Amino acid sequence: MYEGMSNKQTWQISMFIANDPDIYERTQKEAKKAVRSNKYYINAVSDLADFIRAIFEEGRPHLEGIYGDLLTWTLEDTDWKQIAEEIIDLIMQDKDFDPQKG
């Protein structure tokens, strides 16, 4: 455990999302979409986790050697579903969010 997350890699990416306005806005929008389009919580989490992982995989630079290995290990060790759960849980606590409205 690290700062309430499953590991440091997950915590770092979660903090990056929270502090990058563009990625934060994109994940919030996608989280609301996932909640509204899925009957079950676990499906919404899975959809959002896939979306977040894709953001980081698509933006990943090609690195050789140890630096490439370190980046690969970080992305592989990240608990994408835990990050998605955290985001969806916060959205569901927002009194202004209506999961029925699109």
Describe the structure.
The protein is mainly alpha-helical. It has one domain. The protein is built from 5 helices and no strands. Helix 3 packs across helix 5. The longest helix has 18 residues. It is elongated.
DSSP summary: helix tally: 5
Q: Give the amount of beta strand, in percent.
A: under 5%
What is the count of structural domains? 1
Q: What's the average pLDDT? A: 94
Order of helix and strand elements from N to C terminus: HHHHH
Proportion in helices: over 70%
User: Which stretches are poorly predicted, pLDDT < 50 over at least 5 residues?
Assistant: none
Indicate the radius of gyration in whole angstroms. 14 Å
* Total beta strands: 0
Largest sheet: none
CA-based shape: elongated
What separation lies between the terminal Cα atoms?
36 Å
Which class do the helix and strand fractions yield?
mainly alpha
Question: What features would you highlight for this structure?
Answer:
single chain, mainly alpha, elongated
Break the fold down into its secondary structure elements and pairings.
Blueprint: H1 8-19, H2 21-37, H3 41-58, H4 65-77, H5 80-93
Helix pairs in contact: 2-3, 2-5, 3-5
